[in-house]
Amino acid sequence: MELESRDSCFEANNAEDLLSALRKKETHIIIQGDYKSEFEENTQLPLTEKEQLGFNLGTRGSGGFWSEIPFQIINKLSSGKKQQKEIDSKIRKYTLKKLNEREILLYLRQLDY
Known about the structure:
With 113 residues, the protein is an alpha+beta fold. Helix content is 46%, strand content 19%. It has five helices and four strands. It has a four-stranded mixed β-sheet with strand order 1-2-4-3, covered by helices on one side. Strand 1 (10-12), helix 1 and strand 2 (28-32) form a beta-alpha-beta unit.
């Protein structure tokens, strides 16, 4: 996945911006600035490209389906902010790629197909 144009990317500088982009199912989201460290600390990060590839190969493609059910149950029962739980749930549809020390790119997994 190559980043074609930064103009087409949604830039998230806080949790509200990120949640808004996730609800709209933006195809590319850049998390930047001071929010990047907060995001990494508080969010259950999606798998990177290499991790996702290894997981899919190891489970013959069925791991994504079977892992979603327990995740949603645990997420509903866990304590924490409702906003953060919604971010954790919706972010599983995205793949993570670190652009540099201050920016992370999230893009929809379905763009890989």
